[in-house]
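All the exercises in this workshop are built on plain-text protein records. Sequence and backbone structure share a record, each on its own labelled line. The structure tokens are whole numbers drawn from a learned vocabulary of backbone shapes. The record below serves as our worked example for the rest of this section.
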Amino acid sequence: MSHASPPPAALGPGTVIAGRFVLQAQTGRGGMGFVYQARDLLTERTVALKLLNSRSGSEAARRFEREARVLSELRHPGIVSYVAHGLTNESQPYLAMDWLEGEDLARRLTRQPLSPAEALQMLRRVAQALAQTHARGIVHRDLKPSNLFLRGGKVEDVVLLDFGLARVNATSQALTASVMVLGTPGYMAPEQASNKPDITPSADIFSLGCVLYECLAGQPPFRAPHLAAMLAKVLFSEPLELRSLRPELSPALQSLVEQMLVKDPRQRLADGQQLSRAVESLEVSQELLPPSPSTASVPTGLSNAEQHLVSVLLATSEGPCSGGAPMKAEDAARIRGMIAPFQRELQAHGGQTALLWDGSLLATFLLERGTATDQAALAAHCALSIQERLPDSLVVLATGLSLRGERLPVGEVMDRAGEFLRRLEGSAATLASRVMLDETTAGLLGSRFELDKLVSGTFLLRSRQLRVDETRPLLGRPTPCVGREQELAILELAFQSCVEDSAARALLVTAPAGMGKSRVRHEFLRRLEQGEQSALVLLGRGDPMNAGSAYDLLGQAVRRLCGAVDGEPLEARRERLSRYVSEHLPPEQVKDTGVFLGELCGIPFPVDNSPKLRAAHEDPRLMSAQVTRAMVAFLRAHCAQRPVLLVLEDLHWSDAPTVRLVEEVLRELAECPLMVLALARPDVKELFPGLWSRFLQEVPLRGLSQKASTRLVQEVLGTKLPEAVVARLVEQAAGNALFLEELIRGEAEGRGEAPPGTVLAMLQSRLQRMEPTLRRVLLAASILGRTFWAGGVRALLEGDLSTEELEQSLRQVVELEVVQPHPRSRFPDETEYRFRHALVRDAAYSLVPDSLKPDGHRLAGAWLEQVGEADPRVLAEHYQLGQQKERAAYFFTRAGERLFERQDLMGAQKCLDAALACEPTGATFIELRALEAAIAFWMEDFSRTYRLGSEVRPHLVAGSAQWGRVMCGMILAGPQSGHMAELPELSQVLLSTPPDAEAVTIYVEAVSYLVAMYTWSGQRQEALSALERLNAASAETVARDAMARGWTYNARSYFDYFLDARLWQCQSWLEQAVQAFQEVGSDRNQAAPRGLLGLTLVALGDVPRAIDISRESLAGALRARQMYAITYSQLHLALVLTSSPEAGHQEEARHLALQVLRTEKVNLVHLGMAHIALARVAAFQGLPSEAEAQARKACELLGMLKPLQLMARMSLCAALLARGRSSEAQAQAEQGVQVLEQMGGRGAAAVGMWLALAEACFAQEEAAPGENALRQAVRCLRQQAEDIPEPDARERFMRQVPENARTLQLARHRWGEHWEGILR
């Protein structure tokens, strides 16, 4: 054998080629040779010079010669210009062409797709160039983005390159007799990929269609991880529809792409001239005839399109021909000779086969009448046969879904097969000599084959294990509940204990999907019904389409109990609910319970007749509390009559508000005969950490025992069934009840073998074997969800079936135990059904082609909206899956607002994120951002609240409720996060804007926040102006609107405490504010007045009552589960406790303050108050150094919040005096007095601040300034005492408040017992 000489090295600049071309620079290199920039001495022009490595006479040289000869015959601005060609002195072929500046299309597409206009400009130019080449009988055969050069970077000046694979019809045989390199796999036409001998110009049209698709879609039409898989897709798979990637493209342009990508070259546009005419027609009229029926190889309507389960076998040679290397004609002939017998054998077994261009064999198996296990077994037998007879081959087998109607179905499963083939090619020889399987195929094969599992999760098929199976086709017998006696005994004992002890219990039955939770529930209810003790059963079921919808399960349960049917007129549902509540609850509870149960059930009542309901609509936390009270009252009334069983099935599809509400019910009704039975998958504990931990008893469902499984098989299929068959079914089921049921059905059909882990494939296969009409009905139903309605199915099938045909089909699938009817429907006049198992629905849904799911969900959303679907999240998810972004965003926003009102902030945030992902615009986007700002506020993300509020406020209607909500957040969050400077502008806008009639309450709340912020900042005049506006705004509503009254009185108290020191009046305002918020049941809002009431009582000398009030404030905030209110209450309790002489109280205060510092990050008020509390505790414990450090930190944080800053400065002065640094204490006190005078000289801190200055001066032995400061302290003390009308209270104020008592003591010490007369 002769050995090829090594390839020549690259030539340096200045080298002269053929006496004409001077090389300037090397610009590229490849396996075939080099590309240089050169100067043509003849014309003085710059040229591109290709220099081949091979010598003349080689195969590569002949190809090179062909390219040069073809180019020499072509003259077109869209084709690279030929300059010269020939041989160097060393017999190396060269080719000189025009030098082009710019970039190729491949590089351009890495940045972004082309616009439709750009794509048409490119297409027109290339089509014109191809028209000339095709007219000369030349087929390019390698059109791809890298062979299309954009001169100057302009798509309209595209130039066609590289005619090295071009084929001239007249000499085709001579040019291709020994080499079969036909193009680039992802862009070659099907006739090239299948190695057809005659390649016509339409092959270039297909390749250009691939390029055009990529230009528009941003991705190639055919992608796969391996050459063989790529070729299979080119031959047999349709690309993803352009409209799903670029829905804005005109139908005419999409139609043109489809015409170019037709598989059959006879149905494709014939050549460049026809393509040019089509482009011209498109540009002139923007219309094209729709593709002919033959171009649409896949059905397009939901009524007649679906996917099916297919097993794909891919085998390729392990050697020089694998991976796309050039293939000799004799190699291809040899491989075809070996493969031909296998093709005939596979076809005889029902397989569809194709021999690909690279010599790979593709076979697909789709058994319409067999089971998934039969299909996989047949494919495995064939794979082993190929591997045994061609031991050097690489064979892979995968099972998945493919679209019906494709000539040779491949689908997404081909990608998996190609990936496995790629792994095998790079693996060790021990792997390469086996058959690789995916997990689905391996699971379907079960014990009939010997398998090895790899770390990667794939399997190697080693050999067959034959087994003889006898069958007995019996089906339709009722399936009993077996093997669950222990679990049922636990449930029955728990219920008995619940009744006898009158104690609430909660049980959670957990098991993976298909293990029989629903059957246990059914049997338990059946036994209760037959028992002596009757119980009221409330049942709610979770559903994936409703996952996350607030109170969905409980709402279902109450609606079912009251007979309220979704879709009925709202008034009818209200009447049913009201009548039921009035019949079962005491009269005094009927009104409030009814309206708030309406909120839980999605049956809203008018707010006009219920102040509590109106208040709750303004306050999400209040709404949650009221709904809880209503549910507790509702269940308490029923428990008084008989035991209550609340069943929550599929709790893993539930929501946080439901879980919290059930926990509250269990706590409030702890001494009632109430049992909660929840059924869920094991991950429910991850979804809801700490689920009902105080009350919960978990009952995990284990797999069915062998004895129980045997009993089930024999009861359904008969006791005469051979023991070997029974044992096989029991073994394969592995205790999974659903699997066992499916195996029994398969056994009865004679096709029943399948192992655990393959239930989806089993169900897909079972659905596949049904009559086409039944299958279409189930596919349409699956789009609606696990629960569906006959009318919805009819709408999705768009009239394909008559009403009678649909009803007949639904009766049949009920008889086949695929679905079950529900006795009550959510929608009137609509029969409701439910898939018997969630996985059955999943299997049916997976058979719907991805390209048709958007249309299906659009139809489902429209139908549900029409019949009155009350849950906006359900509609949102349908419209989201239906790619109707604006509708999805709208309903996600409504769902988020509902969850926000019910205080499920995390759920609301998820809806908000989903809505934002829909890229909403206009009013919907503004509503979303406003909601996001409100959520951020209650999550204490104040910086985000302020930023979002600033962005969205200009776009909201001033004076509206939404605008008021945003203003609340900005006003309260701004100063607490460092935005005090912006407060005047917000104030001006707020005070000058009249509120809408329905927004008065939220407006009053916003102005009350403004009063508080001005008070905290020590701006007396501004606070007075805001207070005047508040009084005017609330004048007409304060008497009848408890929320407005509470916020008005709370604002007045802030001013009186921090800026006026009218402590007695402050106490009165605060007590009235607490009472107002209690009227509407708002634990969260009570935290504000209760927290300040604690400090006021301390200032009045009543520390014990102050501690009690502060503890009540914290308890209410914890009940409301609102972090801002909790932190606020914790800190006010900590400050109150520091006024106690008990060491235990001081330590508790320290713990509370440290707890806040561990969690709080941005709220300046909370951080400062925490450090004040720590400073006071340190002073009490005799740690002046620690007290000083904490007080300085508080002063730093509270610099702009003057009244709070004074509290910190008093602690700092005391710490400095304790450390003997009286000069520093005097300086700090003087700064504090300056701040006090800036605030008007009054306030709760006035006495303490003047006293601190007096004591610092006396320590410095500066008598005159010290006595002057003491006189001011006495003056302030008298002013505050005069406001207290009761003598005992006034005496307590004077004697039991430490700074007051110290002031009087110091006055007596300085001026004697008759000091009061001296001062007068």
User: Anything to note?
Assistant: The chain has a mean pLDDT of 84. Residues 1221-1320 form one domain. The first helix runs from residue 59 to 73. The chain is about 55% helix and 10% strand.
